[in-house]
Write the structure tokens for this entry.
Amino acid sequence: MKKQIFLAIIIVGLVGSCQTANDNAGNQRSSKISDSLTIELQNIYEQGFINGFSVAIVNKSGSLYQNGFGYANKNPERDFTENTLINIGSITKTIVGLSLLKAQELGLITLDDPINDHLPFIVENPHFPDERITIRQLANHTSTIIDTEHFEETCYVMVAEPDTTDTVPVEVPYFFNNPKDTTSLANYMESMLRKGADAYSKTGFLEAKPGEQYQYSNTGAGLAALIIEIVSGKPFAEFAKLNILKPLKMESSGWKRDNLDEDRISKNYATTDTVYADYHLINYPDGGLLTSAADLSNLLAELIKGYNGTGSLLSSENFQSLFAKDVAKELFTDVGEDVIPVINTRLDKGIFMALAPKNTIGHSGGDPGIVSFMFFNSETGIGRILLVNMTIDNPNQGAFTELFDIWNKLEEYQVRMSNAS
């Protein structure tokens, strides 16, 4: 009996020794792959069309790789790292989607509630006033509420007047508004959507029945966030921080610059030599979250887990609603295999979640001076993040080529990293 116990201890010891050796070998492989990727991304950065960017490769366990390249600020010089904070644009809407589903779990709403059951003012499509608009329609962009010219010209507000002594040229687009021209999310939504309000217009609605036509809507995302504010009794940013950001340990992220480390926030560049005036969004839930590749990796890991039924933030039923994965094939029967997924996403079934070709799920974002991608492959369970501090909106730009060189390089390495982990 004692001999059997002794042999068992030896076997356990051998297994442990082999495992340690295997772990060391795996760590060495992962380190070599990471070093190789860093060199290749640095070479791409040296094309010189993008000032700064951060990246991450993520699976359900967390980040396999994260890094930053270039400058968050060129003058004075400040490196862009994986911890640099930057506005991620419309990827922010995924937080709105998660918050809606959390509110549903808390019994505050159901997705198929008519929005007027919760709003303090009436919103109706003037072309179909008897048709109810639901929260789900806001979340899948079929509410028929669309962005007006007024919205486009008023949603960006400068944090402060530009410093005329700044040595770097500062660009102030015509649609950037003065700091005093801000208001609350509630006042902003009501001013555009309540019939008879100052900024109300029938052009803010499609001539279609709610639920029957898709059109991407930043205004609809803001209205969804406002409903969360009303039913929870908390500002949307506070509700989302408590129920989404904090559980995911996205402690460095937020919407209000005053609550964040200003020295970690990237400048947003119009060109390599011209910076935009610092700004925030009145309709901040549609695209104003300031976060980093490191923090965003936690969100992406949770989305990957949630898609596969192991997420902790929501029930598996609510994660299924988030992705609406049963309709992915239906959405993309007309999309060729050669199409770049992040350019050809569709958002008309999930809850503020884009379903793209090639089994790709996530969201992209774009605002003045930023481009952002966050997607994962639903078959492999591996995802990528790319955050860039430049305006890139023209395929003829050198920055456009550099952007997709980076994105494609991440795709090349993500399977290798996952296999080595």
The two ends are 39 Å apart (CA to CA). Residues 115 and 134 are 5 Å apart (CA to CA). Residues 1-23, 326-333 have pLDDT under 50 and may be disordered.
